[in-house]
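Hi X.,

You mentioned you wanted examples for the new student's onboarding notes, showing what a folding record looks like when two proteins sit in one file. Here is a clean example. The first protein comes first, with its sequence line followed by its C-alpha cells.
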Amino acid sequence: MAVSDNNNANTSRNFDAEGNPLFPSVYEFEYIKFIKQGKEVDAAKKRLVTSLEIVEELYSPIVKAKIIIRDNENFFEEFGLNGQEVVKVGILRKALSKEQDDRVIELDLVVENYSLFEKTTESITVQEYHLNLISPIAFLSRLQQISQSVKGSPVDGIKDIFEKYLPIAKERVLAPGDSPGDFCQVNNLKTVITKRTPLQAIEWLRSCCYDSIGSPFFVFPSFASGNMHIKSWGSITNEAINPVYPKPYVFKPFKETVSDAAAGPGHLEELASKIISLRSDLSLNKLQNTLDGGGPASVTEIVDFNDRSYTDQLDTLKPEYKKVYNQDDPILDPISFNYLEKIEGVKGVDRLDNMFETAKKEVFYLPVSPYVDGYKASPEIKLAAKEEKNHYESTIGSITHDITIYGEDQLIPGVRIKIKVPKAVDTSQQEPGVDESLSGTYIVLVAVHTFKDGIYFTRAKITKDSQYNPKFNTEKR
C-alpha cells in the first residue's frame, strides 16, 4: 500500500489507531500546486485548502472546479495571486484495507476567477477566498479562432480539433466503439467552419452527428482519467454497449458506527453502496415536456433552394394537413403568411390565442447542392434526424433524482446505475419493499465530486433511462 507523507489535518480523524479508514471514501490532498511565471507553491502542504469541488456533466467537455482556501499566513499577497495561475491537483484515494493499494487522481486546472474574498472582525488574522477553475482546454479555446473545412464524419472532425488546437491526443478522445449502434451514422458531412473557437467548432460538429436510431451525441470528460468521451444517447441507454455499473445503490438505513467501520473492508464496501440523500424531480407535466421537445405549436419551415420550394410543417397536424407551396405560387407570402388562416381542416386551433408567438420554431435552409459522391450539408442532416431529436428532447429528464453517495470517481456522466428506493409504508407493520416507479436503471447526467474534511462525496443528477423515447427503444433496436 502506498503511504502518503502529507500531514493534512483534515484526514487524521478518519482513521483508526492502526491507520485503517473509517469511511469508504477517505482521501488526502497529495498536492495542490499553484504555478505562475516559474513560481510554484503547494497549498496542500501548507494546509490552506479546506475543500475542493469538481463538476463534470454530459452536456459539456469542460471540467469545472472550486477551491476554498482559508489563509492564515498571507498566502494571497506573498504568492501574488492574480487569476493567472495554473493549478495542479493530486488526490490520494485511500484503499479500504492495507491489503489494497492506494491510488492518486491527478488533474490540471486553470484559475478562471476569484468569486469570493472574505475577512471578518471576528477572525481578522484569517481570510477566506473561493477560486473558480476550469479545464485548460476552455482557457486555450478562448485564445483561438479557427476556420477550416470538414469533410466526412463529424466525429473525426472533433478528434482532429482536439488534437490540433487544444491539445488532447486522439487516443485520449474515446469515440464510438465497435458496436454498430455506437457509431455516428453521419459520414458524409461537407461544410466549412468559419471564425469559431475550437470548442464552438466541436459543439457545432457534435450537433451534426446522430446514431442509427437518430439520437444525438455528447462530448464529455472524465476528470479522473483525463479522457474525453464522444457517445450517442442511443449507445448510453443500450445495455449491450453500456452495461450497468456493477455496484447497485440502495436508499435505506445502514449501521454506521466507528466500531462497525473498523471491523474491516466488508462493512465499508456495504457502506459505499448507500444513498446518503435523495431528492426527486418527477416533472410529470407531459404537455410542457411535449412543448419543449417540439410537440403542439411546434413549427418547422423548410426552404429548399434546389427546387425553389417552401414547406411549412405543424407537428400536431396529420400529413394530409401539411401543404407544400412553390415560390411561384401567388398565395405564398413568407413574411406575412398566417398559419391559422391558411391551414384548413384543423378545428379549434384558432382559439389558442398567440400560440405561435411562443411556439418552438425551427428553420432549415437546404442549399443548392454542389456536392458529389453523396456529401450533404448540415441542414439536410439535421432535418433528417429532426423527429428523433425532438422525441429525445421531450423525454430526457422526465424523472430525475439528485443523489449523494460516498465518493466514486468512476461515476462519470453517461454511466448507467441501478438504484433501489423503498416504498412509503408504515415500517412498524411491514417491510417497505421497493418502489418500482422511482427505482430502476438511471443514467448520470451531472456528477459533482466534493472533497472536504477528509471524506469524499459524489452528488449526481440522474435520469431514468426508460424515459427516453420508448418508441425507438422497441422498434429500432
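Then the second protein repeats the pattern, sequence line and then C-alpha cells:
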Amino acid sequence: MRWVIAFLLILLPGRAFGQSNFEGAQIGGRTTLMGGAGVATGSDEATSFVNPASITRIPGQSFSFSTFTVDLANRKVKNALDPSGALRMEDADAGKINLRIIPNTFCLFLDGPPKDNYSSRSRHKYSLCAAATERERLNLTQNRFDSRGEDGFVGFSQSTDMEFVRSTVALSWGISLDKNASLGVTFRTDNTRFQDHTTATAFAADSSRGAQQTLSLARETWSWDTSVTIGVTYNISKVITFGAALTTPSQHLIGKYTSNAALSFGIEQGNGIVQDTGDFRYNSPGNLRLGLAFSWPRLTVEVNGSFYGPQKRRAFANFDRRVVAFDSDGNADTAVGRGSVSERGRAVTNLSVGSEYFVRSDFSVLAGFGSDFSGLQPRLDQDIGAVLFRQQRDSLHASLGMSSYGSRGRLMLGVMGEYSWGDVLVADPALAVPKFIASPQTEVAVSLIIYGQLNFITVVEAAERAAIPLTGAGGNKTSGATSDPHGGGQ
C-alpha cells in the first residue's frame, strides 16, 4: 500500500495544458459575419469587447442580441478507445455529432449628453453588455468490447464531459472627439468556469485470469478577474478608417479549485483517492488589436490583426491535497500535502478579413474569414494530477450572411463554418500507471447566426398600440431617427 501512497503523492505536478481560444466565441452579428473584423468599423455589441471607441457608431438608444441559434458540430478523436495502444484494439477512433442551441450576447446602448453640432447624435455613448467570450465543450460516451476467441477479450468504457466557459460583463463609454476621431474605454469583469467529469475503465481476460483498472476524475473550478480596454478610431480619409485597442492583462479577484480523483489498480494492488481543494485563477494576457478599413458608398472591406502576449501562468491552481490509499485487505492509510498546477501560455497572432456590400441602402451582403489559434503549448501525455485543462485546438472559420437595416433597428441572418484541429488528453486506465494520453482531434462545425438590434422607440410605440384598447385613445406616435446602415463614422 505504501507504493500506492508514494505514487499518488508524486502526482503533485509541475505543468499542465488547457484551452485558451480568445476568438472562440464570436460576438456581434456584423462582426461575426465579417469573419471577426470589427476593430475599425464595428457597429454591434462586439465593439464593447473589441474596440469601445466604435460604440459611437451605433445610432440611437437600443438593445441588441446575437446568438448561434443552431450549432451543428462533428468531432473525431483518434484512438480514443485505446489511447496508448495497450489493449491492441482495431479501429479505436471515436466521434460525436452535437446539435446545440447556444445564446451568446446581450447589450444595452444609451446616448448621453451633450449632442454634437454636426449631427443629431450624442457625442457620448454608453453600453452594458453580457457575453460568453470563450466557450469550449467536449462530451464523449464510448464503449467497446473486443472478443478474441480462445485468447479471451478486452474492453474499454469511458464517459467524458468537459466544459469551459468564460462569461464577461462589460461597461463601456465612448466619445466622438470630432467628425473623424473617437475614443472609448471598457471596464470588464470575467467569470471563468471549468468542469471536467471523466470515468474510464479498461478490462481484459484470458483463459486463466482477468484484470480491471479504473480512473475517475471530477474537477470544478471558477475564477473572477478584471481588465480594462482602451480604444480609438480615426478616419484617415473619406475612404480609410483606422482602429486600435489595447487590453490590459487581467487582475485576479477570487477563485476556487476542487478536484477528486480515484484510481483502481486491480484487486491485488489496491486503490486510492486524491482530493484537492484550493484557489484557482485564469489570467488573460494583454492584447493589441489593429484594424484598417476601406469604405466606399456600397462596399466596406476591413482587415484586422489581434496580438496576445505569452504568459508564464495562463492558469494556476494552488491547493491542499489529501490522499487515501486502500490495500486488497481493506486497510487504509492517509497522507496530506500541498500542490500546485500551472499552465504556460504562448503568444498568439490572429488575422481576420471581412467585407460588406450594400445591394440597396437598407440591405447588404456580408462575408468574412478569420483564424483562432490556441494560446497554449502543444499537448503532451500527462499524469492525472498534472492537468488543469485537457484540450488544445486551432481553428479557421468563414462566414456568409445578409443584413436588413431600418429606422426601427436591424436584423441579420447568416451561417458560419469552422474547421478545428489539435489534441485532447484522453484517460487511459489500461496502463500500469493510469494517465492521460494526448490524442489528435478534429472538428467540423456549422452555425446558424441570428442577430437583432431594436431601437427603444419601437418598444415605446408597441406599448402605446397595445394600450389603445385599454385606454380608448389613439395615442401619439413618436417618430424615430433612421439608422445609418454604415454605422456612421464616415
